[in-house]
Amino acid sequence: MPDRTAAAPARVVAYTHVEDVAASRAFYTDVLGFAVAMEDPVVGVSSPANPTAQVLVLPVGFEDPAPRFGVDLGEPEAVDAAHAAALRDGLRVVYPLTTEPWGVRRFFVEDPGGTIINVLAHVEAEPQ
């Protein structure tokens, strides 16, 4: 296996694609005990005991193609390196390398089995 210098993933975030965001938000908070960590652009919930245990509640159709889960590499530079490695290895990038207005640098890549993954890192907010 080739030696890779990419950063280790900081967390993996599960995604659920739902018709009724409010009902799913209530399920994750009221039934499972997650806390709301984010409301915009989607609902994100995290475990009060382990804030890296997270679920994003995405309305159906929010993203096309819809990734199955996210891998947070911790640093935008690691996202750039992973993007370069994906291109070098001939993997299919299905959403281009982008810095989103809500504060993440990301791209979507299809793994060898066909699963679409959101590879991301948070970026510092630009001064206004």
From TrEMBL:
<dbReference type="InterPro" id="IPR037523">
    <property type="entry name" value="VOC_core"/>
</dbReference>
<feature type="domain" description="VOC">
    <location>
        <begin position="8"/>
        <end position="122"/>
    </location>
</feature>
<dbReference type="InterPro" id="IPR029068">
    <property type="entry name" value="Glyas_Bleomycin-R_OHBP_Dase"/>
</dbReference>
<dbReference type="Pfam" id="PF00903">
    <property type="entry name" value="Glyoxalase"/>
</dbReference>
<dbReference type="InterPro" id="IPR004360">
    <property type="entry name" value="Glyas_Fos-R_dOase_dom"/>
</dbReference>
<protein>
    <submittedName>
        <fullName>Putative glyoxalase superfamily protein PhnB</fullName>
    </submittedName>
</protein>
